[in-house]
Amino acid sequence: MSRAERAVHARLLRSELRLIFGRRRNWVGALVLASVPVLIAIAVRAAGSSSGDSFVFGQITDNGLFVALAALTVELPFFLPIAVSAISADAVAGEANLGTLRYLLVTPVDRARLLVVKMTAISVFAAVAVLLVAAVGSAIGLAIFGGGDVLTVSGTTLGFGEGLLRLLLVCAYLTVCLVALGAVGLFISTLTEQPIAATIATLGVTLASQILDALSQLSAIHPYLLTHYWTDFGELLRDPLSLAPLGPGVLCAVAYVAVFGTAAWARFTTADVSA
């Protein structure tokens, strides 16, 4: 890639990120994501205890970092996927719907590189969304319940710094999972000029995967489902730490990105958007 091409690539990425993070509707979505950890913290504080079947929820009053983990657990099945679905589905379909896609392609960058820029922007958004939930959850959790040692699923305790590192690893793993969903959304976005339809279809893929994953009769296909490994982030709360159990989830996410990224490239590079 020449210097001029890199400059165009960087300019397109900056423009894409400004478009994503500059829209009011996306700010409203961010407020919804940030409100969940606040509601969890207030509810637990008002109840005076956080006892329950979930290990994460049961530890909130002992350490505020668990508010972030609880919020990520709550938002993972629906709120985070719908945020990523909306952004990824709008990547191409939104441009086509507004009639700006054909003008965008006039710039000296080929379609494949433009698709890479959009996928990169989707990945950045996924990371920011996860970190937003974790940051707000940690801040309000520590403010209300304090910090200190972090109890692990194994029954041992970790120092606050180590606990914070585990939370960041959880965020990284969930980002990888959501990037895979973003690749699915990007592909669907190349199939239509209606971003709302693409968003619904992408979210539908997520919900269908969760439903199929809940059916024990279909256990043979579970390892191939998009959402099957999403909850494996709980392995990061064990002591000693082992990243091996996260391997299948990461490989599954990479496979989805490769397959649907290639499908998006095949569709986008051959589609007629000049009319």
Can I get a quick summary?
The chain is mostly helical and 275 residues long. The chain has ten helices and two strands.
What does this structure look like?
- The chain has 275 residues and is mainly α.
- It has helices at residues 3-22, 24-47, 55-58, 65-75, 79-98, 101-104, 111-145, 160-189, 195-213, 247-268, and strands at residues 150-151, 157-158.
- The protein contains ten helices and two strands, in the order αααααααββααα.
- The relative contact order is 0.14.
- It has one domain (3-268).
- α1 (3-22) crosses α7 and α8 packs across α9 (195-213).
- It has a two-stranded antiparallel ribbon.
Class from secondary-structure proportions: mainly alpha
Helix content: 55-70%
**Structural domain count:** 1
Strand order, sheet with most strands: 1-2
- Strand/helix succession: HHHHHHHEEHHH
Strand fraction: under 5%
First and last CA, distance: 29 Å
Give the CA-based shape: globular
Summed up, the helix count is: 10
Mean pLDDT: 90
Radius of gyration (Å): 20 Å
Low-confidence stretches: none
Q: Biggest sheet: strands, sense, closure?
A: 2 strands, antiparallel
- By DSSP, the count of extended strands is 2
How are the SSEs placed, and which strands pair?
Layout: H1 3-22, H2 24-47, H3 55-58, H4 65-75, H5 79-98, H6 101-104, H7 111-145, E1 150-151, E2 157-158, H8 160-189, H9 195-213, H10 247-268
Antiparallel strand pairs: 1-2
